Amino acid sequence: MSSTDQQDQEVPTEVVQPVQVLYCEICTFPPEYCEFGSSFTRCKEWLHAAHPQLFEKYYSEEALQSKLGTLSLEAQAMLEKDTAKKEAKAEAKADAALKKKMASQVVIKRIERNKRKFVTAIHGIEVFGGSLGGQFTSDSLSDKRVDIELKKAAKFLAQKFATGASVTKNAQGQDEIVVQGDVAEEVLELIENNTGIFKGIPAGNVEIVEDKKKKAAE
């Protein structure tokens, strides 16, 4: 039998299917590892609502008794105390981050380049939750929501206004978005209407400033 015939008669190898792993929407760990995170109580609440069968598997009275049966009373008390301490620390951190965000200011600067030519610089939006971030609550922060990405915001503005937009460094060395054209009022309107990637920025934290070109000395 030729090698070609042998190849034709070979049984195809079985295709291994990828394993589907469930991840907690609160801490992003697999549910069986949530207890090692800092949001265990909220993780259990999510699992109970989203996957009740798994909740029973891990946290039913029988499952807990089986698990705790191997621990001494002292070890159980230490475990509960450590879990409560982690959660309190995570909550305090989330609250501090929320206060910092709410105190931040978004500045939309209308900059005059030449006669009747302007660019619009936007600074400060990166600290706020965008289309992936939603509205501000301590829960949304501890849910690991994503802040606005400046490059995505610049692309959004470029498409929205059919003009150039890029991320650059300002005089203070901080990142900001520079849009070609006078679109300060339009950007403010997008923020006020919670449009697209700007969803979630408090309008009260936004101000428009003028940066007019200085006239040459006569």
Automatic annotation (TrEMBL):
Pfam families: DENR_N, SUI1. InterPro entries: DENR/SUI1_TIF, DENR_C, DENR_N, SUI1, SUI1_dom_sf. Residues 106-195 form the SUI1 domain. The keyword Protein biosynthesis applies. Keywords: Initiation factor, Protein biosynthesis. PROSITE patterns: SUI1. The keyword Protein biosynthesis applies. GO terms for biological process: formation of translation preinitiation complex; translation reinitiation. GO terms for molecular function: mRNA binding; translation initiation factor activity. Belongs to the DENR family. Interacts with the 40S ribosomal subunit. PANTHER family: DENSITY-REGULATED PROTEIN, DENSITY-REGULATED PROTEIN HOMOLOG. This is Translation machinery-associated protein 22. It comes from Boletus reticuloceps. The lineage of its organism: Eukaryota, Fungi, Dikarya, Basidiomycota, Agaricomycotina.
